[in-house]
Amino acid sequence: MKIDEQQKLHKLYIVDQSISLIKVFWPLFLIIVVKEGVNSSAFLWMIGGSIAIFLLGLLFSYIGWKRFSFTLMSDRIMIHSGVFFREEKTIYYGRIHSVNVQQKLLHRLFGIAQVMIETPGGKEKSDGVLSALSLSYANELAVMLRNRKMDAQQSREADADHVQMEQQAQEIVASAAIDSSTTSEEQLNPKVNINLKTSELLKAAATSLNFGLAIAFIAGLYSFGSQFLDVLLPESFIEDTLNPQYLLRAGLIVITLLVLAVIAVVWLLSLLLYVIKYSGFTMKEQQDQLLISYGLFEKKTFVIDPAKVQAVLVRQSWLRKPFGYVEIGIQVVSAEEKENLVLHPFIALQDVNGILQQILPKFIVPEKEKIVSAPKRAFLYYWRTPLIIALLLTSALFFFFEGYALWSLGLVPLIWLVMRASYKAAGVLLEKNQLTLRFGALTKTICLIHRPQIVSLSITRTRGQRRKQLLTISAHALGSLIPYKVKCLDEQHILPVWMWYRRNK
Predict the structure, then answer these.
(1) In this structure, are residues 98 and 150 in contact, taking their beta carbons and an 8 Å threshold?
(2) Which of 141, 150, 200, 471 could tie 494 with a disulfide, CB 3.0–4.6 Å?
(3) pLDDT at residue 413 above 70?
(4) Are both 416 and 437 inside the same structural domain?
């Protein structure tokens, strides 16, 4: 590892950035192919424009590569970048929060990787990104930065409490002298080493229906599929199917079959994307840190300090509930706000505490019977507003479309069932300095959080809820975009939580 010497990114950075620029325009290319065909002038213009964009991307990528450099120094890393405006970043090793190595699909094809350096307070993106390094060098650099980070932290602790550090150093030396063989054996065989089997991956994928993907698929089908539907379906099929008279006879059956077909396609797509994302999932302990890695095409590796975990989220979707399986997520302070950090994607609920005891011993999932659920008088506040909105929407559809809006009647019982599930999931428990919040409808979430990790805690209620002696509790952890919120719980169970938080405050 070169110290005090200016270094460059891998030259494949130029190609990677150019191809990434082309990826931005492929949806437009797809639209032109579907709408105009491959023999149209618009298609030829698109081909010429793509070539021009690629060449322009090569030029700017080369300039960006030429003007990008980084220097490893004894106490910091300096990054110089910028095409039109020069930018210099200085990241001291002691300020580094985490160092992650990631590989996108193109990176894996080229044998390169990117190193993402994060510091506390990073918001939209990582503070330092080295976009293209050889995979071996990226892993070596990540290890070096993590070691320098730990050394810097130990140095600060030594300055703060020199006597304590001397005692720790003596204990380490004594332990190393006595148990050197044991230590080396533990490094080769870490206490935690979890690999997700292929059968478990397929089960997890089969029980993770992605509703966001479903909405995107339906929107795409509506945007691009109209021409194909005209060819595949009989003329005026949709108009005849939605005709009120036909709808009362056989139209509902046809619509139901179409809905089931769409759900089946979405389920298959969701299964495929899940397998691609979490293929090769591994979690192991390395130097008192957790190393989580997964991804078939885009390989992601996260190094997590267990002491920095803010909250544990145990999620159980409605598809996994009959089988008793859950997903364990964790909340950490990270610049990658959109990344859902998963500790284990598919594990039996009864085995969760066993995993947490090994990795995060201060967190524990309480028994179901201990969590206090929402009282019966709170059910009204769960279904009343959504059901009124559904009835108003259905009435408006009938007013404008008359008999064609018969399908909207299915929204009323569907929303009622969803709100009932949300009411059944609501619960709270304060035990052993741990606050447990349970919430969710289609996906039930059990949030485990301790007092030091709670940034803010609030309780609210309306006038009606005040008469019913109900309170809504909301806890915000460090690094979370939204608070963890449970509606309409009995105030006799919420007020002790509020006093516990204020007393510790």
Answers:
(1) no
(2) 471
(3) yes
(4) no
